Amino acid sequence: MAEAKVKRKKYIFLLARIAVVAVGIIWAVIWLSAEQRWQSLVQLFVGMNLWVFGAALGIFVAGQVIVGFRWWLLLRTQSVFINLFAAIRLHFLGLFYNNVMPSSVGGDLIRAWYVTHHTEKKFEAALSVFVDRIIGLLSTLIIAIFFYLLFLHGRGAVLTSSQEGGGFFERISHYRHIIFWALAAMALLFAVLLLIRAGRAIVLKAWSSIIMHGKKLFKKLKDAAFLYCSRPLVILTTFGLTIFLQIATITGFWLIGRNMNIEASIKYYYVFFTLTWILGAIPVSIGGAVVVEGLLVSLFTQLAGVAAEQALALALCQRFIWLFGSLPGVVIHLMGAHLPKDFFIDHNSGVD
Q1: Up-side HSE of residue 92: CA atoms within 13 Å toward CB?
Q2: pLDDT tens for residues 157-214?
Q3: Which of 213, 70, 228, 206 is nearest to 136 (CA)?
Q4: What does the alpha-carbon distance between residue 252 and residue 115 come to, in Å, rounded to a whole number?
Q5: What is the DSSP string of 79-112?
Q6: Closest among 74, 71, 57 to 328, alpha carbons compared
């Protein structure tokens, strides 16, 4: 009964994420249908140099190979030995599940499953996947903060003639009454829940769940810090690799933007793309779809003065590159190259 309840929750969560993507796509179609925006978007794609797009795609794929190498280093740090190319194959398989498959099973779980089911060092293997994800997110956050403080901190947004009515935060201030009443309604709803017995049970259950998951997360962080602090050179290497590949990937998107005659400086790319990658990691949609694109369009139009159609075309190019770059995972899955029989682990011990 408990297992069926867990499965039902997973399906509900998956359907909710699919619904977010569907609503976002419908809204985008309606928006594009007004003021002949479709024609502008099509012209941007037709006029794009495919060699520039191919170069950005190649940079992205090469970056994913580096990510696979990064994970391989983390595995070896914990004496979980698999072939380098096997680690890269498993990473591309996970990338396919993250970016393409509308599944409740994420790419990180796929990688963890194939490693932990074929080694005695199950905890260390699973921890390597968790640490790999944390390193990716932290390095992304570092890039965003660094370039924001270096280039954008204390500077106003670039506004076009159509945006002279005020900046992003000034526009939000016009809706302060709506925001106030929305927060008041949420506070009232919370108060009502506390007054009702069933409501109190819901709040307590939610709070217990938050505490439980928080403790698990803290334990993982503590164990990760203890296990990896003895190998600082490996951690520094993985951070350096991650920052290099992310800057290279964003530079590829900047080349696409220049090809679309987007005049925004590359400094905006380094801040906006990394910020949307972090927020897109929150599992509210499939592979961050709609969320990442919406945030990119908003940031580029409101803060960098880019036309909405250009910003949307750039965001869609990123999504296309993610999808095309994930296709090797399909080939790996169909060929069975992800199966444990293809590699050895734990100091050349054969796989059962």
Answers
A1: 26
A2: 444 444 444 444 555 555 566 666 777 777 777 677 677 877 777 778 777 877 877 7
A3: 70
A4: 32
A5: T----HHHHHHHHHHHHHHHHT---SS-HHHHHH
A6: 57
Tokens, residue 262:
């987007």
Task: Give residue-wise pLDDT tens across range 205-248.
Answer: 777 877 877 777 677 667 666 767 777 788 888 888 888 999 99
Token pair for residue 325?
Answer: 């770059």
**Burial class of residue 245 (count of CB atoms within 10 Å of its CB; 0-12, 13-18, 19+):** buried
DSSP, collapsed to helix, strand or coil, labels residue 281 as coil
Q: pTM higher than 0.70, yes or no? A: yes
CA 344 to chain centre: 30
- Residue 322 has φ and ψ, to the nearest 5°, of -60, -45
User: What six digits make up the tokens of 138?
Assistant: 């932290």
pLDDT at 164: 45
Residue with tokens 């985008």: 28
The phi, psi pair for 286, rounded to 5°, reads -85, 115
